[in-house]
C-alpha cells in the first residue's frame, strides 16, 4: 500500500469556543471523504472509516493487516441512526440500549436487504455489530461524519490494542491519514459484544459491561458466554476467532501454585534467560528475583488493571527479556474480560 503522511490532532476536551471543535469537524469530513482516522473511545483507540464506503473499509483491513473474515463494529453518534442502517432489533436489545448506550456495549443486529453498509463491514454475515461510544470526542467526530463509522482497534492485527495516541502512531504511522490524540482511554479493554437476537442473550466477547450488569437489566439466567468461532467459519463478532492482544515477548499465564512458577523462573534464569513478571502491586515482594516487574495495579481495583493491561503488554516489548509470567485473575466482573484478553495474548505453550 502507498505511504500516507499521518497527522496528529490534539484534542484535550470539547469546547465549542476553542479550536478543537473545528478540528473535529475537519476530521469528520475526512471520514465522509473516505479517509482513515484513529480516534479515542472510552475502551481503546479505534481506526475509523466510513462504513458505507467499501474502499474506505478496505483501507482499514490493509492498514491493520486484518483477516477479511473478521467483521467490524459500526459506530454511530445516536440511536436515531439505526433507522438508516437497515437493521431490526428485539425488546431485549431495546432494554440494553436504554441501559448502556452510549457506552462500552456492542449489540448484534439482524440486517435487512436495504442496508447501506459495505459487505466488508459484516464479513458477509446477515448481521452487523453496532455501538454508540461514550467518549465525547468520538461522538462529536461521528456526528460530523454523518455516516456510520467502522472502527476496529487502531493497531496491527494481533498486537495489543492501543490505549494512547502514541500506541496508534507507533503501529500505523504511514498507513492511515490521521490520529486524534484525546488522551489515554478509560476502560482499557474493548466493548462487550452481545447477541440478543434470540431468547437467550450470548456474550460473544466480554468487555467493559459485565455479565452481571447485563443480567441486572434482563434478569438472572438470561445471559450466557459463547465459545470461539470454528476455524472454518466467519466469527459473528471481533475477538472470537483469532489470536489477539499478543506482545512479541513470550507470555505465560501463572495458572497453578505459585511455587511451580517460582521454580520455572529459577530454571529459566539458570539457562541464562531473563524473565519479567506481570502482577498486582500486592504481590510485588514475591517476585523480587525476577529480572523485571510490571505492575498491573491493585487487586482491590480490577478496573485499574483493565485500564493498564494493554499499555503494560506494550511496555513489556520494550524490555530486554526473553519471557514473561503473568498473574491470573478471577473470572468475575471485569475479570472475565481481563482473562479473555490474557488467554488470547498468551503463548500456546504453557
The multimeric state of the shown protein is: single chain
Give unreliable regions as ranges. none
Distance between the termini: 37 Å
The helix-strand sequence is EHEEHEHEHEHEHEEEHEEHEEHEH
The structural domain count equals 2
Q: State the CATH superfamily name of the largest domain.
A: DHBP synthase
Strand content: 15-25%
Radius of gyration: 20 Å
User: What is the CATH topology assignment of the largest domain?
Assistant: DHBP synthase
Number of strands: 15
The pLDDT mean sits at 92
Shape: globular
CATH class of the largest domain: Alpha Beta
| Architecture (CATH level 2) name of the largest domain | Alpha-Beta Complex
Structural class: alpha/beta
Strand order of the largest sheet: 1-8-2-3-7-4-6-5-9-10-11
| Helix share bin | 25-40%
Largest sheet: 11 strands, mixed
- Put simply, the count of helices is 10
Keywords:
single chain; DHBP synthase; alpha/beta; 2 domains; 350 residues; 15 strands; eleven-stranded mixed β-sheet; Rossmann fold; four-stranded parallel β-sheet
Helix/strand layout:
Layout: E1 7-10, H1 20-32, E2 37-39, E3 46-50, H2 54-64, E4 73-75, H3 91-100, E5 105-110, H4 119-122, E6 127-131, H5 136-145, E7 149-150, H6 165-172, E8 178-181, E9 192-195, E10 201-205, H7 211-218, E11 223-225, E12 250-253, H8 258-270, E13 275-279, E14 292-295, H9 302-316, E15 323-326, H10 334-345
Parallel strand pairs: 1-8, 2-8, 4-6, 5-9, 10-11, 12-15, 13-14, 13-15
Antiparallel strand pairs: 2-3, 3-7, 4-7, 5-6, 9-10
Helix pairs in contact: 1-5, 9-10
Amino acid at each position: 500500500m502507498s505511504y500516507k503522511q499521518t497527522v496528529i490532532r490534539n484534542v484535550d476536551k470539547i469546547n465549542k469556543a476553542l479550536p478543537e471543535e473545528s478540528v473535529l469537524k475537519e476530521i469528520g469530513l475526512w471520514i465522509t471523504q473516505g479517509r482513515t482516522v484513529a480516534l479515542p473511545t472510552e475502551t481503546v483507540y479505534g481506526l475509523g472509516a466510513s462504513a458505507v464506503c467499501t474502499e474506505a473499509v478496505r483501507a482499514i483491513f490493509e492498514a491493520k493487516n486484518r483477516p477479511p473474515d473478521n467483521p467490524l463494529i459500526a459506530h454511530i453518534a445516536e440511536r436515531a441512526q439505526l433507522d438508516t442502517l437497515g437493521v431490526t432489533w428485539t425488546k431485549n436489545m431495546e432494554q440494553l440500549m436504554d441501559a448502556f448506550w452510549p457506552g462500552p456495549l456492542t449489540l448484534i443486529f439482524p440486517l435487512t436487504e436495504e442496508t447501506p453498509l459495505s459487505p466488508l463491514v459484516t464479513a458477509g454475515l446477515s448481521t452487523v455489530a453496532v455501538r454508540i461510544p461514550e467518549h465525547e470526542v468520538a461522538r462529536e467526530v461521528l456526528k460530523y461524519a454523518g455516516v456510520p463509522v467502522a472502527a476496529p482497534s487502531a493497531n496491527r492485527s494481533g498486537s495489543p490494542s492501543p490505549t494512547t495516541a502514541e500506541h496508534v502512531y507507533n503501529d500505523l504511522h504511514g498507513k492511515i491519514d490521521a490520529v486524534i490524540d484525546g488522551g489515554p482511554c478509560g476502560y482499557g479493554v474493548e466493548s462487550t459484544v452481545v447477541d440478543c437476537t434470540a431468547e437467550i442473550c450470548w456474550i460473544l466477547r466480554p468487555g467493559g459491561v459485565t455479565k452481571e450488569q447485563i443480567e441486572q437489566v434482563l434478569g438472572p439466567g438470561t445471559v450466557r458466554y459463547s465459545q470461539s468461532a470454528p476455524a472454518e467459519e466467519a466469527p459473528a463478532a471481533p475477538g472470537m476467532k483469532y489470536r489477539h492482544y499478543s506482545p512479541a515477548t513470550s507470555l505465560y499465564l501463572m495458572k497453578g501454585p505459585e511455587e511451580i512458577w517460582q521454580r520455572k523462573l529459577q530454571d529459566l534464569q539458570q539457562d541464562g534467560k531473563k524473565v519479567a513478571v506481570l502482577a498486582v502491586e500486592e504481590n510485588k515482594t514475591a517476585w523480587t528475583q525476577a529480572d523485571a516487574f510490571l505492575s498491573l495495579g491493585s487487586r482491590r481495583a480490577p478496573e485499574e488493571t483493565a485500564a493498564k493491561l494493554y499499555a503494560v503488554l506494550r511496555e513489556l516489548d520494550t524490555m530486554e527479556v526473553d519471557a514473561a509470567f503473568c498473574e491470573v485473575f478471577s473470572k468475575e466482573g471485569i475479570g472475565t474480560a481481563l482473562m479473555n484478553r490474557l488467554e488470547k495474548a498468551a503463548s500456546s505453550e504453557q
